[in-house]
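Help!! Second protein's tokens look totally different from the first
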Amino acid sequence: MSATEDLTNDPVILLWRRIPVILRAALIAELLASVGNLPPGGLMLANLKLWPSVPWLLPATALWLWLFWRWMNGAWWPRSTSESRRRDLRARPVSARVWRWSLLAGGLGVVSCMAFGLLLARFADVPRDTYKLPVDFAALPPWTVISILLAISVSAGVVEEAAFRGYLISPIARRHGWPVAFLVSGVMFYVAHLNHSYVTLAHLPFFLAISVVHGLLVYWTGSILPAIVLHATADVLFIPLQYGLIGNLHAEPIWRTGVDPAFLACLAVVLVFGLAAVPAFRRLAGVVRGEGRLAALS
């Protein structure tokens, strides 16, 4: 893994370097995703047991994410890996124009993918109770509920993009090219979500698709920052719908209901927003070329 490439010829490091890049990157990404998401989850459970009316998990989660981000971006020990950590994270600033087109193109792609995910759920016989949260949000103050949603969403955006679109994609793209990096990122992103009871094999195409959208943003901008913003925003908007906090998500298998209006509506969103994302991504590519910074070469 590139985060260890600067170390000395230690036997353990030499053995590690003999492992194929794809496997090394996948192991590192899964480890970082697990470590990064663990404290926010623990803080949420602790907050629900200790002073649930006071959303103290939000500043505590923000502090953890700041520390996690700083280390991923090259701070602290070991100094020998600082530069490679910074390089693989790809936390590079982008111009205002790149930001605008990234959020537009990526936003259109993400909406299409989320609707695609709803379509795929209709091909998986998952009980509706699977989407129920283990917490009775109705008994909590609104500010605590909002704080929990923000903490979950921002943590997922920061940690998962850093792991799967930073540390995972970067070394694989350098060794095997971007298409392979996108594919591996999507598969590993799916594997990382198998602990969610509603995720089945039918959802794999969704994780591949969303990984391509986020991966293209990284490819063209050279930065994971737009992908983080879109990931967190999608989660904070979709989680209430997914778990029934807003509305009533229709997840009945299509072989029981047939092609109903809900299915056709999702299909229309997939097509309209997906097609609209294509020229938006082309425009983003033109803006990046115009600024003379082609991310794919970095």
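Here's the second one for comparison:
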Amino acid sequence: MDVVQPLWLVWARQLQAIAQTGLTFSTVTYDRERYEAIRALAAQIMAEHSDADMRRIEGLFADQAGYATPKVDVRGAVFRNGRILLVREASDNGRWTLPGGWADVNQSPSESVVREVREEAGVEVVVRKLAAVYDRERHPHRPPYPFHIYKLFFVCDIVGGEPRPGPETEAVEFFAPDKVPSDLSVSRVLPQQISRMFDHVASPDLPTDFD
């Protein structure tokens, strides 16, 4: 699915990436001042066209270092008796999502999703399959995010533990395909993505989805 992003968001991200990479490699004071000005312009564009606070955006951008690359979000599709595990976030108005979050440094993607499922849902899992690698920008997630994100979806099997909320979640439940709640955290997961995870469990030989 190709989703057309607003040009202001594309431009702001591109300017931020240019500034971040430039500040990483440039040692010339004049050039560094120009890259800082570009970074400030990117923050201004994003603040002008969204509800985000200008100082918060500037802080987010200033915290980034090194060559600019997409961030990685991991999600665990955990099944039991034909139903999928969802967690209700303590934030985002208590909406439901697949357990997951940012991949951690020094952890592989599969290790990161195992950790996230344990922390958010209380169960130990093993990864069965990488079901999908989605570019967040090509799917109708809302609201827009300041950085480019790749989302990795893993089908997982429970090997221990009991479902329970974690520090960042309020509830853990299993849902049949026709009972998936409508109040999803669409910043994190979309109904069609959850439906696709059911497809992968029903047909294990499906190839990994991408883009």
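Reply: Different proteins will give different token patterns, so don't panic. The chain has a mean pLDDT of 95.
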